[in-house]
Amino acid sequence: MNERKVLLNIRSLSNGEENLNLICDGVLSEKEGGYRISWDGSDCFGKTGEENSVEIYGDETFIFGIGDSTPLMLGKNRTCAVSDFDLGQGGMPVRFFVSELKNTLNFEGGNVVLDYTISNPITASVNKRFELAVIR
Question: Among 43, 62, 101, 109, who pairs with 76 as Cys (CB 3.0-4.6 Å)?
């Protein structure tokens, strides 16, 4: 498996408002026909030593992992229902719907943009965007 150290720009928007814009070091790896990008989660979530990662396979599949939690697999134009997702207030059922997945990654760099909606029984739906750029 080829891998190299990279500089990442990770950006997140919620209902059109930016709530995360982070530049950090990471690792880009080729993995089974796709790419895996990992970074130190303490940079954005404050948990020392926690590794966060995304795996991207073409324009169809996106896998997001935070620390030791079970990775979340999302697919374009598909709903993913998670029965016990912890939003900081205990577990609750949550649905993710991915409306757009744009991937221009290659081993030299590129971008991934994921547009999705999160809904649960307590709050209204939230439109989200996750952008990840490998900038060197």
Answer: 101
Tens-place pLDDT, residues 85-132: 555 556 667 888 899 999 999 999 999 999 999 887 777 788 999 999
Q: Are 128 and 13 in contact (CB under 8 A)?
A: yes
The number of residues in the chain equals 136
**At residue 3, what is the residue type?**
E
What is the residue-wise DSSP string for 75-97? EBT-EEEEEEEE-SSSEEEEEEE
d(CA 98, CA 121): 18
Give the phi and the psi of residue 61 in degrees, each rounded to 5: -130, 135
pTM of the model: 0.82
Per-residue pLDDT band for 43 (boundaries 50, 70, 90) equals low
CA pair distance 11, 112, nearest whole angstrom? 11
Q: What is the CA radius of gyration of the chain?
A: 15
Find out whether 114 and 92 touch, Cβ atoms under 8 Å.
Answer: no
Closest CA to 131 of 108, 106, 109, 102: 102
